[in-house]
Amino acid sequence: MSTPTLRSAASLAAERPLTTGEALGILRGAAQALAALHAAGSAHGAVCAENIVLDDAGTVRLCRDTPSPSTVSPEQQRGEPPDARSDVYGLGAAMADLLRPADAQPEPLLRLLATMMADDPKDRYQSMAEVLMAAEACELMTGQAAVRPARGGAPAPPGRRLLLVAVLAMGLAILGLAILGLLGRTPPAHGTSPPDARR
């Protein structure tokens, strides 16, 4: 069995600009890997574009070398130990590094990254589960599905997309029922209808 070729997300972005779908695919893959790490009681603490690696199929993995100074969270710079929120910051900063120039990116993606990179940990997404939900919402708002940056851009696993679609459909159904209820309570018209209407 041959060993898969690994390359960093940084080297991929240096070769060519990433599409929004590819960026979301990398973000989701890294967030899922970090969620598993956090569930095991650890924090990565060194998330950066160089430490996000992809195999030949575009599957995202993480390694742990020295982080880029631009992706170290403010609390780590103050000497505090990293936690899940530090990794949220690092992943957001890594994605911002991969997606330059920023003004070419869709607004929902920029808002997602800005929340991830808030200076105060309390203002960030508090877990990778929240990051993944926000990424799903970003996909819906931009109309860009996450894809793996590989030959052909294979679609990333659907994740929570079906859940969000179901929630939206339920919301529309409830709205429709509310409108029908309001229409049902409209009082009948009084008086006689015009002669033309009786024909």
Any overview of this molecule?
The chain is mostly helical. It has one domain: Transferase(Phosphotransferase), domain 1, CATH 1.10.510.10. It is 50% helix and 4% strand. It has eight helices and three strands, in the order βααββαααααα. The protein has helices at 9-15, 20-39, 74-77, 84-98, 107-116, 128-142, 161-184, 195-198; strands spanning 7-8, 52-54, 60-62. A three-stranded antiparallel sheet has the order 1-2-3. Residues 151-156 have low confidence and may be disordered.
List keywords for this structure.
Transferase(Phosphotransferase), domain 1; 199 residues; 8 helices; mainly alpha; 3-stranded antiparallel sheet
* Total of domains: 1
- How far apart the termini lie comes to 83 Å
Strand order of the largest sheet: 1-2-3
Question: Beta fraction of the residues?
Answer: under 5%
- The CATH first-level class comes to Mainly Alpha
The CATH architecture can be named as Orthogonal Bundle
Radius of gyration: 23 Å
Question: What's the total helix number?
Answer: 8
Helical residue percent band: 40-55%
Derived structural class = mainly alpha
CATH superfamily heading: Transferase(Phosphotransferase) domain 1
Summarize the helix and strand pattern as letters.
Answer: EHHEEHHHHHH
What's the shape?
A: globular
Number of strand segments:
3
Determine the mean pLDDT.
83
* Low-pLDDT residue intervals, each spanning 5 or more residues: 151-156
- Largest sheet report: 3 strands, antiparallel
- CATH-assigned fold name: Transferase(Phosphotransferase), domain 1
